[in-house]
Amino acid sequence: NAFSLASGSRSSKTFKPKKNIPEGSHQYELLKHAEATLGSGNLRQAVMLPEGEDLNEWIAVNTVDFFNQINMLYGTITEFCTESSCPVMSAGPRYEYHWADGTNIKKPIKCSAPKYIDYLMTWVQDQLDDETLFPSKIGVPFPKNFMSVAKTILKRLFRVYAHIYHQHFDSVMRLQEEAHLNTSFKHFIFFVQEFNLIDRRELAPLHELIEKLGSKDR
């Protein structure tokens, strides 16, 4: 996998357990297909729905993969993202996020970035582990609300990228992780653009970077 971290890095502890797609399953084949096309270097092509495949399933597999990637990326900088360094969850001075999941925490609360990201990743993991939302068995249909759940997950995962870029890019550079972060983010952005999964307003904190990544590829 082109994105796996150099195993020697001292903080390669993952922040949440990796979500595994069962080997031998159709979703596993799709993941392998995704990894193979990524290797071609053409990310616009790599994100397209493979011929004859189910859109929900393609989005599900990629969402799990992005969760794992972001998990790893954030895991490398957790020691720099603390209550004192990041007392609010922000993406630059103009964007601040307050956490609510609609069930346990209904009214948005202001909290530190590490707390927010912990809430966020735990919430995403709970969605991914829910067989009624993300069925891993062949022939089990996706629920009618799958698309809206996937959009919410991706919208929230984007915020972790935005926080890393705005508040911790110097640490990323020091760890020599910037190429890895940029490739992962570019893949993520091309994917959400291909299927129109995140509202443009939500992408505003990284608008300039997104423009730059897109223009290089035309």
Commentary on this structure:
Keywords: Kinase, Metal-binding, Transferase, Zinc. Residues 1-22 are annotated as: Disordered. GO terms for molecular function: kinase activity. It is a single chain. With 218 residues, the protein is an all-alpha fold. 50% of the residues lie in helices and 2% in strands. It has a two-stranded antiparallel sheet. Strand 1 (89-90) and strand 2 form a beta hairpin. Helix 1 packs across helix 3 (55-77).
Proportion of residues in extended strands: under 5%
Largest sheet: 2 strands, antiparallel
Average pLDDT level: 88
Distance linking N and C termini = 25 Å
Q: CATH top level?
A: Mainly Alpha
Share of helical residues: 40-55%
Q: Sketch the topology as an H/E string, one letter per element.
A: HHHEEHHHHH
- How many alpha or pi helices? 8
In CATH, the topology is named: Butyryl-CoA Dehydrogenase, subunit A, domain 3
Structural class: mainly alpha
The CATH fourth-level homologous superfamily: MOB kinase activator
Detail the poorly predicted runs.
1-14
- What is the total domain count? 1
The beta-strand count equals 2
So what's the overall shape? Answer: globular
Q: How do the strands line up in the largest sheet?
A: 1-2
Radius of gyration (Å):
17 Å
The CATH architecture classification is Up-down Bundle
Binding site for Zn(2+): 81, 86, 163, 168
GO molecular function: kinase activity
Protein name: MOB1A kinase
Keywords: Kinase, Metal-binding, Transferase, Zinc
